[in-house]
Amino acid sequence: MPDPIALKKKRAGLPVQHPPRIVYIGILLSALSLAAGFLTGIAALAVNNGYPSIIPLANGITFHPDLMVFGAVGGLLISEKLELMEKFPLIRNIPISRPIVAFLFGGVFILSLGILSSYEIARYAGLLLVVAASLLFLLFMSSNANHGDKRIKLVFAAAIASMFLAAIGNMNSLLYSNMKLTFLALLFPILYILAERMELGFVRGMGARIMALQAYIAWFAVGMAFVSVEVPDKFISRFAMVLSIILVAILTGISIKFDPAFRKIKRNGRFQHFMRAGIQISFFWLALGLILFMLQAIIGHGYLDPATHSIAIGFIGSFIVAHSPVIFPLTFKKKAIQENVTFLPLIMITIANVSRVFGDLAIPYTSLGETFSYVSGYLLLFAILLFVYNIKKIMVSPD
């Protein structure tokens, strides 16, 4: 169905707006990172749980987290800002968006090949490119070209700093095998999303002091997470991680208090109900993930996988699904009929994550845990297909 506004512009001889090409490139490379990360995860799930794998990439689990955190999630969050970055020149007429995309996805690709081939120089080169991309992204998000309250920008900066520090920490240890490094890497999307919700809280009356407090807490949480990764003393390292988790929990509590998704609204259409439900579900998974990470930090084993997937799939995945009717039409400059939204992808991603987290927790006690964990990968694939269907259902052609 054509966009009537676009048709009027076309008939009047006015240009129809389209996003810059770099936006399509960023979204495409994020999707490819997601696909590669998903395939390696499925292959590893099959082998680790005693099932045959049709994908010969079971050892790809070693770079699966890098593909998902830096490539898929990082790429998607950065792609949302690429149109603004096109107006921010880095050197002469070269927009900052171009090197960010090149460094990030080039770095993820080289990093993955380096891990897969055990070629350390390639791994370090890939990580240095990710570091460069995160520093450029930090430069843009902290600049005047990115409009917004300075305290909110400080939280965004803390989020990107965790991405930078995770890449630095990744030079000495792989993400998939290091609990503290995994948590530090996850702080990037966690704090980034909380900063986005903070913008709504500001509109809803969040005071300046509370906003400043959140900025301090965010930076302190990132600092403690990095200390936990780098300090060799086990007691100090564990204490720093526990403190970082507590600080993130405080930030989460503040966000929930001021978030409009947790306030009663008299009139609530289908789209508003979809967004509210998705955000509430995502915060549930974040809370559970923080609890599981706390148990992992204290006990030392048994909770890393369920904690990671509770946040990676449950919190981040549900949040992206909930915001997709807003984010993707704006990004692609298409008219959206948001009331056409369906709850199916939100329901399916919740079922998939319940299966994964329950399966991971149950593995030590019953063989059913392995089955639930394995099946969750295919449920998640179905959720992704429903997510794409949902996007197509609400968007209409620009021309």
TrEMBL record:
Keywords: Membrane, Transmembrane, Transmembrane helix. Signal peptide: none annotated. The keyword NAD does not apply. The chain crosses the membrane at residues 21-47, 67-84, 96-115, 121-140, 152-169, 175-195, 207-229, 235-256, 277-299, 311-331, 343-365, 371-391. This is Uncharacterized protein.
